[in-house]
Amino acid sequence: MEQNNVYDCIIVGAGLSGLVSARNLHRNGSKILVLEAQDHIGGRMLGKFLPSGQWIDQGGQWVGPTQDRFLNLLDEYNLRRFPSPSNGLKVLVFDGKRYEFDGFFQGFYEGDKPGISKEEWLDATEAWAKFKKLSEELPEGHPLAGKNIEELDSDTFERWIKDNTKTRFGHWYFAYMCRAVGFSGPSEPKEVSLLHALWGEKTSSQSEFPEADLIHGGAGQLPEKIASEFLSKIHLSEPVHTIFHGDGKVKVVSQLSSYEATSVIVAMPPHLAGHILYQPSLPSLREQLTQRIPMGSCAKVLVTYKSPFWREKGLAGIAIGNLEWLELCADSSDPETGVGVIATFVSGDRYRRWQKLSDVERKAAVISDLAIYLGDEALSHTTYDEINWPTNPWTGGGYTSFMPPGVWSSMGEALSCSIGPIHWAGTEMSDRWSGFFDGAIRTGELAAASVMDYLK
Ligand SMILES: Cc1cc2nc3c(=O)[nH]c(=O)nc-3n(C[C@H](O)[C@H](O)[C@H](O)COP(=O)(O)OP(=O)(O)OC[C@H]3O[C@@H](n4cnc5c(N)ncnc54)[C@H](O)[C@@H]3O)c2cc1C
Ligand SMILES: [Mg+2]
Fold first, then answer.
1. Hey, which of 206, 208, 213, 268 would you mutate to test ligand 1's pocket, going by the most ligand atoms within 8 Å of its Cβ?
2. Which of 77, 122, 359, 418 is least surrounded, with the fewest CB atoms within 10 Å of its CB?
């Protein structure tokens, strides 16, 4: 159908997945329109330059060696990478004791172990080996059906951790991995299905080093580059609230106007796709699924310093532990600027306590924990930027979503299936690197391909 006012495809959401699908369709010669709720593109791929000229990534920032879709895009737009700084001693603070050690452990083990007891270390590492083995037994793709799937999906990850660790350290290590690092979400182990945690490890494993590299100038530069080919097709500040579909066309209604098209790609986290009203209504499995996929509770905080002071003390600037607020911080300094940048996260129950504090208290909480990890020099910061992702209504949390018990096995099949002219994208839909930039790109490519098929 080629009428002047009818588009081949309307893409709702200009995050990375929406932009990639729009770009592929535009290159294919399709007539597209992109409707974005916010006054900027990029969604969770969001960067900013500080007054000093130093860049920070307020959303995602890292890329790893097996994230080939993301690496291809970076190459295509000539964005240069550098190794995420990791030289020097790492810090673990556990139950009030501080250890510096020349190694690393985050789902993989390198170098020396921290100075905790052998019993604690073996407890964590032996349970990890069991967890890893269980994850490798999952079928390929989304974990919907197959051996033990229903059983694994009926437990929380917390139950498994309690059954498989004996020490406080062993328990914390898994909870920390769930809350601050991997398995998507992030989530508290009590909130998430064991199956989902295993699937996260299988499809987006820390052992593939997803935090290996950073990007000079930040990941946040990429959205403008991708969009440069079709800028005039993007409408900002136009939230979509209704999609009419049927009779071989769709009508997409935003807060400002309505548009007709042959197809639509809804490119956003599932719970936001569920906020849109579909007429006629979608199959019940899909409607019910989007009611059951929450986003992680997480804020990202970026703190800058005149220089990476921790290096003068032999520290890597990477620290983990069970402090009151921060369980993880990482040196994110670009060697070409010389500025010290620490990225840190407040997640799960810690986030829920922290967001109740005043502005002054939240900042004091973060900075005082950084001082425990890296030393009192951390108190003398130059800038402090917190990005409270759950308060952004067009994201609802971060880094990504997670599945509570029972969701994958009872209605997960509705996650990525197109429904007539309606196609879905968004990192949450991916069966590889779900929750990461790479997963967002994969779903953008797949949605564009399925629309091209549909338009034939
Ligand atoms: C703090 C944080 C750290 C992260 N760290 C990393 C990392 O280091 N490496 C990594 O690979 N990934 C990381 N991620 C994940 C990564 O940012 C996401 O996987 C990716 O950006 C998601 O892209 P998307 O297009 O799927 O969704 P989004 O970026 O969420 O895009 C959805 C878009 O839809 C728009 N929208 C929503 N509702 C509507 C509506 N009704 N109408 C119109 N528009 C709408 C939104 O405004 C948004 O622009 C991180 C994420 C966060 C939050
Ligand atoms: Mg709805």
1. 268
2. 359
Tokens for 168?
């406080």
Whole-structure pTM value? 0.98
pLDDT digits (tens, 9 = 90+) for 20-52: 999 999 999 999 999 999 999 999 999 999 988
Report whether residue 297 contacts ligand 1, using a CB cutoff of 6 Å. no
> How many angstroms from the chain centroid is the CA of residue 260?
32
ipTM for the predicted complex: 0.99
d(CA 456, CA 453): 5
92 three-state secondary structure: strand
Angle at which helices 168-176 and 157-164 cross, to 10°: 150
Using a 6 Å cutoff on CB, does residue 267 contact ligand 1? yes
> Ligand 2 centre from 239 Cα, in Å?
15
Nearest ligand 1 atom, CA 397: 53
